Amino acid sequence: MKKVFLLILFFSFGLLAGEEEPSKELSEQANQKKEENVEEPIEEKGLSPQTAPFPKKPVPIAVIGGGISGLTCAIECAKMGYDVIVCDDPEKKWREIENPLSNWPGGAPNSYNDLLKTLGSQAENKLSLYHTKVTKITKSQNLFQITSDKGTFSSHALIIATGQEPQQMPIFTKNRFLPRPWMTTAFQPSDTAIIVANDETYLLSLIQLSFRVKKVYCFTRNFRPITHSPLEKLAQKLPNIEHVLYDRLDKITDKEKTLLLQYLRQGSKKQIEASWIILDIPWMPNSKIFSKLVSIDSRGAIITEAESGQTSTSGLFACGEVAHKDHISAIKAAAEGEKVAQSVSRYLFEHWIFPASKKE
User: Fold this and answer.
1) Going by DSSP bridges, is the β-strand pair 215-220/316-318 parallel, antiparallel, or unpaired?
2) Spatial CB neighbours of 41, under 8 Å, sequence gap ≥ 6
3) CB atoms within 10 A of CB 70
4) Taking the model in full, what pTM does it have?
5) Does residue 212 share a domain with residue 83?
6) Residue 296 has what DSSP assignment?
7) Structurally, how many domains does the chain consist of?
8) Assigned domain for 27 exists
9) Which CA distances in Å does 204 have to 211, 213, 231, 290?
10) What 3-state DSSP class applies to 17?
């Protein structure tokens, strides 16, 4: 009898042990599915334009300009735990060009949009990007009031990163018009290119371009051979550079695979066809809307204190090309954005405004 009882007991334990294993497997599968549901691909974490209204309460930081410098500054501030709003002008169509970013070190993103996704994945839901044009900025009682075509909101600190704009807006042709700086890996040896150079800084770019493509037409109003410069001597001797004088550019026609530039010279209409058109024209810092709030130099660049980015107005900072007379590289713009983010953080701490959460 005792042996029978032990056998029944052993058999019962065996059944219980056999039932435990499937339950463990099911629980592990459930946990795995739960984890899969929680995880999101990086692409979905990227910065997408917001459609929600602006918040009614003041946000700690507002950034005007969604270029390299402005976005880098905004991301750094968001990583510190601050809520940040970025207002980017929807008319910045050049950012749709799928060309690699110039002067960006190893592991460069393929385009501005790729950089947007990469940086957006680091924002930790603390950054809101709006495609809206800012029309007015005022300051009252240590708060900045930002008015745009989508509404009004206020912030404790403001960063200007509006870059530069060409003095004369050129005709835009997607994928083949290149604003400066334009030296990318997109050129092919069989391509022909037109460079329209109206300033004195085009010569080195012209020579660099001539080694990348089959033929270069250099359009200029005042070109004249000068023999004392080694670069000018070289430009005269390179067989694939042809200098073209013009009185006025007429229009650019976007054909199926090429571009047609029509121009006037000594009363006659002429035209040249090419794969690329580079309008290397003078650019100016885009600072006009801020002229009553900050000090601006004779060229239009916002004057800042050393590397802090602090302007003549307390709590208002500037970074990127809007604080420079000339173009700067993408990596320098990003570095300035990071430095200004640190300055903004110090300013907010001094005014007892702290992050809602800190990044661990």
Assistant:
1) unpaired
2) none
3) 27
4) 0.66
5) no
6) B
7) 2
8) no
9) 11, 15, 7, 34
10) helix
